[in-house]
Amino acid sequence: MLEPTLLVLASLADGDKHGYAMMQDIQAFAGVRLGPGTLYGAITRLEEKGWIRGLESDDRRRPYRLSAEGRKHLREELTLLNQVSKAGLDRLKSV
Amino acid sequence: MRGLLQALVRLYPRAWRQRYEGEFRTLLDSATPRWADAFDLLKEGSLMRLSHLGPVAMSLLGGVFATILTLAVFQLKPVQWESEAILSLRVPYNGTLDSRGPDISFLSMSRENLWKPALLHIVEKEKLYPDLRSQNAADDAVRRLRKNIVATPLRGLAGGGTLISLAFHDRDPYVANQVTRDLASAFEEQTVQSFVRLLGTGLPPELARKPAVRLELFNSAKHSSTNWAMVTGIALAEGSQLGLIFALFRRRAYT
């Protein structure tokens, strides 16, 4: 249910990663396997917005890094999600 | 499978591939290939390709897509059958009544002049509109029947009189035939009665015997035709417009 772009941003929050590493990381922390097309669709949109940027690399696997703006956006989104999650869980407890 | 995934990368637009192709192909080589990935590439590649089409190509694509969609919808539409009766309306009296002929023709041409009791009788006899009959909505049933009747004056007859086409559509050709037959009879009966009313009480005996309406040709059941040229033209034009608007106002994912 989570947006692929949010998953990519969350994956890059603890350091630079290339596509395959992101795919494995997202599967590990969110239990979601993003298809290669979906993953690169998200990377394309995030790079266009300036929230991540591709780094130079010697091999064919280009790593990506979260930009300051991307980090700010991720923080806002996760805070909102946290609020929603907390409110929802509280309401479930009260029933 | 891996070969298929690599081939699907060609779906992506050139500008995108110039930037991402190398690393994307490396990812496809590293990950375990799945059938779901093929659909994923097909979907994402097509969307990316769509976002890179120019206004003209997008307009053409929109037109073709809308046309195919419209024709498919029209194909799924239930088949309608049309039954048509051609009535010859002629005043059979050569005396002073000739001048009243056009008035009588005019009275009889309109479907609105088909009287409610006659139509209600047809609704019940042919078991039309079961939904309305079950609710005892007689007025609605008559209204719907009236709406489905097409009464058209065709042309004047030599020596006075008029040809009238009376048509009815239904999904069942048998029902279309039967209802048209009933309508023609009702039409005939009512025209004679209108004739009598117009003339008052002094109806000559020969008129009482001869009907003012005669059925010339009856019940040619056929598939009601769709104007394919018009439908295709409208779909093509509307789809092209939408494609153009989309192309002009979209946000490109990557340029």
Give an overview of the whole structure:
Chain A has 95 residues and is mainly alpha-helical. Chain A has 4 helices and 2 strands; from the N terminus they run αααββα. Chain A has a two-stranded antiparallel sheet. Chain A is elongated. The relative contact order of chain A is 0.16. Chain B is of the alpha+beta class and 255 residues long. Helix content of chain B is 59%, strand content 13%. Chain B has 11 helices and 5 strands; from the N terminus they run ααααβααααββααββα. Chain B has helices at residues 2-8, 14-30, 35-50, 55-76, 101-109, 116-125, 130-134, 138-147, 173-199, 205-209, 228-249, and strands at 81-89, 149-156, 162-170, 213-218, 222-223. In chain B, strands 1, 2, 3, 4 and 5 form a 5-stranded antiparallel sheet that branches. In chain B, a hairpin with a 5-residue loop joins strand 2 (149-156) and strand 3. In chain B, helix 4 (55-76) runs antiparallel to helix 11, helix 5 runs antiparallel to helix 9 (173-199) and helix 6 packs across helix 8. Chain B is elongated, with a radius of gyration of 32 Å. In chain B, 24% of the residues are buried. The interface between A and B is medium-sized, with 19 and 25 residues.
